[in-house]
Amino acid sequence: MGGLESDGTQIEVVRVFTDATGRFGNPLGIARAGDVVDVDHQALAARAGYSETVVVEQPDEGTARMRIYTPAVELPFAGHPTVGTAWWLSEQGTPVEVLRVPAGPVAVAPVNGMTWVEARAEWAPVFAFHEFDEAGLIATLDPADFPDGQHYVWAWTDEARGAVRTRMFAPAMGVAEDEATGAAAIALTARLRRGLIITQGEGSQLFTEWNSDGWVRLGGRTVADRAVVV
After folding, report:
1. What is the pTM for the complete model shown?
2. Would you say residue 6 has pLDDT above 60?
């Protein structure tokens, strides 16, 4: 990573974990590594202001390396950046089977219009989990009530189906509230040891599958949004 900053860096933006009609989803900034050689990646992510911005290298033989940044810190792994980047690379005509992030290799697979990745729960940041008895209470929460740390609040909406309602607050990462959080979905799936259907934020949708060997599959839909200059 270079130490110089440059003005006018273009990044692509996609929305990850939309609903079936393409609404909602968590914006993700994507920068090509070759375009930001002399740009401070962390400063770029802070200027972009998305919950995560990634820097991805050109794929080689079905594999691409990438780095993940919140506005405040670099992460070894995150869910919505891996799902979104895998989808975007496929749309560019360079699909990958593996994304290599600092935490380890993330397997990628497109299935029935969704992009799935596989990761280990211990790769996720440490979240404080807060279970509510009534799903309706989730909507009443104020991000100001969570001034530090990383918090994932959740409630069953249909326990038999594995359906939950969630929100995530992560001021420690520079994110007051995250619209859709794949790493937290993976961590909750491992905690409950079952696959989940998750509705987060305004209406984003995430899907998980639990494997007893400690791996969790995470899937969702992604749509292109726009290109921006930051």
Report:
1. 0.95
2. no
Residue 58 has which token pair?
A: 């050109």
Share of the chain above pLDDT 70, in %: 97
* Residue 1 pLDDT > 60: no
* pLDDT for 7: 60
The crossing angle, in degrees rounded to 10, of helices 182-192 and 79-91 is 120
Taking the C-alpha atoms of residue 118 and residue 104, their distance in angstroms, rounded to an integer, is 11
Of 49, 59, 62, 41, nearest to 13 by C-alpha is 49
Instruction: Domain ranges for the chain, please list them.
Output: 10-105+221-229, 123-219
- Beta partners for residue 10, in sequence order: 229
Fold of 10-105+221-229: Diaminopimelate Epimerase; Chain A, domain 1 (3.10.310)
Please report where in the chains the tokens 């130490």 appear, as a residue. Answer: 3
Which of the residues are catalytic?
A: 52
E-strand stretches of the chain: 10-18, 26-32, 52-56, 63-69, 74-75, 98-101, 104-111, 114-120, 128-131, 151-158, 163-170, 175-178, 197-200, 204-210, 215-229
Q: CA nearest 200: which of 220, 215, 216? A: 220
CATH of 123-219, one of 1.10.560.10, 3.10.310.10, 1.10.580.10, 3.10.180.10: 3.10.310.10
- Rounded Cα gap, residues 49 and 47, in angstroms: 5
